[in-house]
Specification:
Elements lengths: L3 H4 L12 H13 L5 E5 L6 H13 L13 H7 L6 E5 L6 H12 L9 E6 L6 H12 L5 E7 L7 H4 L3 E4 L5 H14 L3 E2 L1 H11 L3 H15 L9 E2 L1 H5 L6 H13 L3 H13 L4 H20 L1 H7 L5 H13 L2 H18 L7 H11 L18 E2 L15 E2 L5 E2 L1 H6 L1 H11 L1 H8 L2 E6 L2 E6 L2 H7 L2 H15 L4 E6 L18 H8 L7
Parallel strand pairs: 1-4, 1-5, 2-3, 3-4, 6-7, 12-13
Antiparallel strand pairs: 8-13, 9-10, 11-12
Helix pairs in contact: 3-4, 5-6, 8-9, 9-10, 12-13, 12-14, 12-16, 13-18, 14-15, 14-16, 14-17, 17-18, 20-21, 20-23, 21-24
């Protein structure tokens, strides 16, 4: 019995999966008779390059075509489909790289008029593997080809092609097959084989094939073989248990499960999943890469759902439902935190003494809710305090003031303290060094919508008062606290900064972190 991918190889343009941008152009050329003498089909493997080349060869030679589609019934179509047409010459450049092969198989044959068909078509597969001398020989016949000759060059590595050859071809770039298109083709095959299969199995096959149609059809053939000969088991249902014997573990599905557990801050569940995957032989570096791929898509979808469909991977129905649930329940800040922690874990996996430890630490860290920064009360009458303009500041403290937010609530000292860590994390995402500067300040007074920030060092205050930096801080304050807020800086040399917690875990004190971030010399 023929393998499924050979049995169901497309016979005309309508059966070719995907590549609509290429099919439309070729169909118009064939119908109008304005054919090029040379075409270059380039793109990934198993996406239909050689198949479409054969369809073109049939279409230009078929006398009974319907529009641009070959009839597949006439003698020309049958002889080409069966590989016995003397005027359609397929050359495997991977095994015939020399100049002598080009002279004998192409140049000599091109000088002879077609035997029985209107056009003599040369399909050269993996053409990039020809030698330099062979390319030079091919170039000569391509410069001034006879009217009855059409070249179709197929390659997976167009960058290895000489520009002199490329410039004489109409170039078509093939894309990987979309998930939905692959599932439709697989369902068509199942229907033709009179089998019943669970939809999630076809989705799993298509996802594992990663855009390569032939891989999907080969994998389906293996699953059908597990269930039995399709010619003798008509109507038999193929179960997930049978398919699972053949389909490799889907890392993307496991990665989505992992992100779902992390979104619930379930450190125990995340650690159990990591160790289960490790026991099953999964490569944790590949797994972390899959998780980051999904996180990128979730982040883009959170920002702009329309953009996610253009830039992300196609997930399929089941994974898309899980993704949407995470998008709805997890804030953008937490998605960024998850990505940041997984990037760090990915770097550390290579040299980890315990293989799964970096991922486990990331899971535990993400499950912990960020604690608010402890802000010491400002001294009641600092002896050397002065504002950035040189004037001493005065007025009620934050604890004494309530300010109405946009939502109608009141903001006070407790909320300033409780959400200060969230503010610092937002700042860090915009400007890493600025977060260290703000880590050693204290918010002490809110007058109207102006928040006073006290610094120990004047160069910190000057840094914050730079127009662009100040605007960034005020914008983030407005986002976090829900009210329009401006800042004024105060310098107090008596301010104690030793107890201010650092944002990183490197063990350096805050002053050194700030000095290093600002380009100063680190002391100690």
């Amino acid at each position: 019995m023929a393998t499924l991918y050979r049995k169901y190889r497309p016979r005309d343009f309508t059966e070719v999966v995907g590549q609509n941008h290429i099919k439309i152009t070729l169909e118009h050329e064939i119908m109008s008779g304005q054919l090029a003498h040379a075409y270059l089909f380039c793109g990934p493997r198993a996406v239909g390059k050689t198949t479409l080349a054969r369809v073109v060869a049939k279409a230009v030679n078929c006398k009974n075509k319907n529009g641009a589609n070959p009839c597949s019934q006439c003698e020309a179509c049958k002889s080409i489909a069966e590989g016995r047409a003397m005027d359609v010459i397929e050359v495997d450049a991977a095994s015939q790289t020399g100049v002598d092969n080009v002279r004998d198989n192409i140049i000599a044959s091109a000088r002879v008029t077609p035997v029985s068909l209107p056009y003599k078509v040369f399909i050269i597969d993996e053409v990039h593997m020809l030698s330099t001398q062979a390319f030079n020989a091919l170039l000569k016949i391509m410069e001034e080809p006879p009217a009855h000759i059409i070249f179709i060059l197929c390659t997976t590595e167009a960058h290895k092609m000489p520009l002199t050859i490329i410039s004489r071809c109409q170039r078509f770039d093939f894309k990987k097959i979309g998930l939905s298109d692959m599932i439709k083709k697989l369902q068509y095959i199942i229907d033709q084989e009179k089998l019943v299969i669970e939809p999630k199995i076809l989705e799993a096959i298509a996802r594992h094939a990663t855009g390569h149609m032939r891989d999907a059809e080969s994998l389906l053939g293996q699953i059908v073989a597990v269930a039995g000969d399709p010619e003798s088991v008509g109507g038999q249902a193929i179960t997930w248990e049978e398919a699972e014997l053949v389909i490799p573990r889907n890392d993307l599905a496991e990665a989505m499960n992992f992100l779902g557990v992390l979104s619930k801050k379930d450190a125990g569940g995340a650690i159990a999943l990591i160790n289960q995957l490790l026991d099953n032989g999964l490569d944790l570096k590949v797994f972390t890469g899959d998780a980051l791929t999904l996180l990128r898509q979730l982040m883009i979808a959170k920002i702009n759902p329309a953009l996610a469909s253009q830039l992300g991977v196609e997930l399929g129905e089941s994974l898309q439902e899980q993704a949407q649930k995470i998008i709805n329940e997890v804030s953008l800040d937490n998605l960024l935190r998850m990505a940041d922690n997984l990037i760090k874990a990915g770097r550390e996996l290579k040299d980890a003494v315990i293989a799964q430890l970096p991922l486990e630490l990331a899971a535990v860290e993400l499950s912990l809710t960020a604690a608010p920064v402890a802000i010491a009360p400002r001294p009641s009458t600092p002896s050397t305090a002065s504002t950035s303009s040189g004037q001493a500041s005065s007025g009620p403290t934050v604890a004494d003031i309530k300010y109405e937010t946009k939502s109608g609530g009141l903001i006070g000292y407790e909320e300033i303290v409780a959400r200060w860590q969230e503010f610092l994390l937002r700042v860090r995402q915009h400007n890493h060094s600025l977060s260290f500067v703000l880590k050693v300040c204290q918010p002490t007074k809110l007058v109207g919508n102006k928040l006073n920030l006290v610094f120990k060092y004047k160069f910190h205050s000057d840094r914050v008062n730079e127009p662009a930096i100040k605007q960034t801080i005020e914008n983030i304050l407005t986002e976090v606290y829900g009210m329009m807020m401006q800042i004024e800086t105060v310098v107090d040399e008596n301010l104690a900064v030793a107890d201010a917690p650092a944002l990183d875990n490197g063990g350096n004190n805050v002053v050194n972190n700030v000095l290093e971030a600002l380009g100063g010399k680190v002391i100690g």
